[in-house]
Fold Rifampicin phosphotransferase.
Amino acid sequence: MSSLVLGFQEMDTTQLSLVGGKGLNLGELSKIEGIHVPEGFCVTTTGYRKAIELDETYQALLDRLTMLKVKERDQISEVSRRIREVIMGVEIPSDVVIAVTHYLSQLGEEHAYAVRSSATAEDLPHASFAGQQDTYLNIIGREAILQHISKCWASLFTDRAVTYRIQNGFHHRQIYLSVVVQRMIVPQASGILFTADPITSNRKIISIDASFGLGEALVSGLVSADCYKVHDEEIVEKQIAAKKIAIYGLKEGGTETRQIDPDQQKAQTLHEQQILQLAHLGRQIEKHFGCPQDIEWCLADDIFYIVQSRPITTLYPIPEAADQANHVYLSVGHQQMMTDPIKPLGLSFYLMITPAPMRKAGGRLFVDVAPRLASLVGREALLKTMESDPLIKGALMTIIDRDFMKLLPNDQTAPIPSRSHTDRLAPFVNDPTIVTDLIKRNQASIAELQQNIQAKSGSDLIDFIVEDIQQLKKILFDPQSTAVFMTAMNATSWVNEKMNEWLGEKNAADTLSQSVPHNVTSEMGLALLDVADVIRPYPEVIDYLQQAKDDNFLDELVRLNGGRETQEAISNYLSKYGMRCAGEIDISKTRWSEKPITLVPMILSNIKNNEPNAGKRKFEQGRQEALDKEKELLGRLKQLPDGEKKAAETKRMIDIIRNFIGYREYPKYGMVSRYFIYKQALLKEAEQLVQAGVIHDKEDIYYLSFEELNEVVRTNKLDDQIISKRKEEYQLYDKLTPPRVLTSDGEIITGTYERENLPPEAILGLPVSSGVIEGRARVILNMEEADLEEGDILVTAFTDPGWTALFVSIKGLVTEVGGLMTHGAVIAREYGLPAVVGVENATKRIKDGQRIRVHGTEGYVEIL
C-alpha cells in the first residue's frame, strides 16, 4: 500500500491528514454493510506536498497570503491567482503518476470518473467547507484525470476557499489537499438527503431533494428539485417541482445540459418505495457516523449509490435530557439580552445562582418548560409570562396546538383565576425608602465580601465562593426585592391598559418612566457624560485619547495638561461601574476595569455629540416630560365620568412606577459586582496554577466548570487537551445562532408578529418605547467599534447593561433580541428613545448607513 494513493477500502479513521474529510468519509461509507459506494481511490496529501512544497515561488506567495485579512479582497484575489498558476505549472511527481496509473488499471481506465477535491479541513463535524474546492465530472482517460488532479490541487487557492479559511481561523499552511478519483455512475436520478430537516432542524424528519440526471444541476441551483419529508418511515410531505433541465455525462467525457420533455417535467422523480428505501439508508449512515448527515446519492439501475456524506454543521445542538420524553427549551439568552456563547466557568456560575431547571447546549442556557406545558395551570401561567415576547409566545402556541406536550393524565388543576393589576398591587406599601434600604443592604454585603475574600486562597477560596453564592441568591430572590420591581411592572401594565381604555392613548407609561430615581444602569450612561465634561476643556488630552490603543493609557495621562483630572474622573467612574461590560452575565467576559480603553470611544463620542452638562440636562428633561405627561393624563381623566376616582387611582399607580421601576436594574448590578470580586480572586489563584505549570495562561480557567476548577486547585493536575478542546468548541458555538424555542427533536419553532394595517415593507418587531424617529442606522455588533454621530439609530443584536453608555449618543434603538421588560427596553424608555426590539435578523436586513424610521409606538421599522 502506497502513501501516495489509497483505495477507499485501504483507508482508516486515523488518516484524515492523508485523505482529507471527503476521502475519509468515502472510506468509511464503503465499509458499511448494505451501502453501495462507487469504487475509487485518493491521491493523498503526501503526493500534493511532494509536488509543491519545495517550490520557492509557491512558498513566497504563501507567505504573502498568510499576512492578508478578509477585507483585502483584491490582494487575496491576485496572490491566489498566482499560486494557482504555480500549482498548474508544477509537474506531478512520477511516483504519483505511477500509483494513479496502477489504480486506474485495476478499476478500468476506459471508465468515466469524478475527480473531486478533499481538503484536510473539509466535511468535518465543526466545518463543512462545502463547495470551497472544485469537482470535475465524467473525466475519461489517464492524462485527463492527471490534469484534473492538478486542477483540484490549484482549487485549494480559489478566492472563495482562501476567504473561507481566513474567516474561520484556518491557517493556509495547515491545510492540504487530497484528490478523490471515483468511478462515475450514470444515474437516472440523483440528489441530496438530510437526516435532519435543514429548515426546522428537526432530527426526526428526513428531507430528500431529488431530480433527474446528475446531481450537479441540483447542487448548482440550475433546477428545482422534488422535496420529500419522511418521519418514522412515513412520507409526511411531498413537493413535486417542475424540472425543466437535467445534466448528463457524454460518452467522450464531460457533461451536457438537456431539456426534459414537457410531459416528464412534473413527474415524481422517486416513487414511494424508493423514498422510504433511501430514508432507511440515510438513518443507517447517520447511525454509523453518530451525527446528522448531509448525503449525496444517485440512483442507477434501481440501486442507490452514496457518493458523499458529511456532518450537517449548521444544526443547533439539543440540550441533553435524562429521558426520551418530549421536552421544550426556551433560550435564557433571549431573556437576558445576551445571546453570545458563555464559557464553561460562566455557565457554572449562572447555574449555581438560578433556581430554574436549566440545560446547556451550544454554550448557552435553556429552560426546560415541559413540566409547565404538561398542565393547564402551567400553560396559562407560562403564556401570560411570555406576553412580553410574542415570538416565544407564538412558538409555544404552535407547540400546544400540535399536541407535542401531552397534558398529565387526570389533570384536575383549574385555570388560575384572573386578577387585575390593582388586586396584585393592593398589599404593597408605596414607600420609596424601601428601595434605598435594599440598596444600602446590598452595598454593605458587597463591601463585606470584598474585605473577607482577600485572605482566601486554594480550596478555602473555592469553599468561600460557594458559601457566598448562597448569600447572593438570598439577595437576588429576596421577596421584598422581587415585590418592588414586580409591583412597578404591574403598575406599568395597569397604566398602559387603563390609559388606552379610558383615553385611547398607547404606552403612556413609557414617558412616565423617564428619569426615575435609583436606576443604576441609566445613571451609569449619564455619569459617562459627566466624565466627558471633565475632559472637554483639555484639547491635548482629547488628542491623546484619540490615539490611545492600549490599557496603560491612564498611566501616561498625568504628564498632560488636564491629565490628572481625566485620570481621576475615569478612575472614579470605574470604581463604581468598572465591573460592567457587554455580555456581563458571563463571569469570564473582560470588564471595563480590566480593559478601560473600551470606554475611550464612548467618552470621545460624548464630547463630540453632546454639549457641556448634557447628563444633568438630559435627566432633568426626562423628569420634566414625565411630570408634564402625568399632569396631562390626570387632567384628561378628570373630565371623564367618575373622573376624580380614575385620576386618583392613576396617580397612585404613577407614584408606584416612579418610586420603584428604577430598582428593576439594581439586582443585576449587585450580581455582577459580586461576579467581579469572585473573578479577581480566582484569577489570582490561576496565576499560581500558571507558575506551577498546571495551565499555560491564567484565563485558561474560563474553559473549566467551577467543579473542575475546584478539582484542579485541589490536585494541581489538569489534562491539557481539555482546555484546547473547550476553546475549539467555543469557537464553534460562537458561529451558531441560538433559537428562542427548541424542542427535544431539535426542531426550532418560530413565532410571528400578528399585525394589520402596516406599510407593506415594514420590518416588524415589538414596540417597547414610544415615539417615531428618523436617522442614520448604525449597525454595530461590537460595542468597542461604535462610532456614533448625533441623531444615529443603533441597530444591533442585543443590548445588555454594558451597552448603556452608548444610549446617551443615539436617538433610537433596534435590536434582534428583547422583550418589554428586558434591559434595552427599560433604558430606552427612561431615556425617551423610540425603540423596537425582537426584530428578526435586523443586523442583516438593515444596512449600516441606511436612513430608517423607527416606529416605537407601533413596533416596526421602515427603510427610507
In short: The two ends are 66 Å apart (CA to CA).
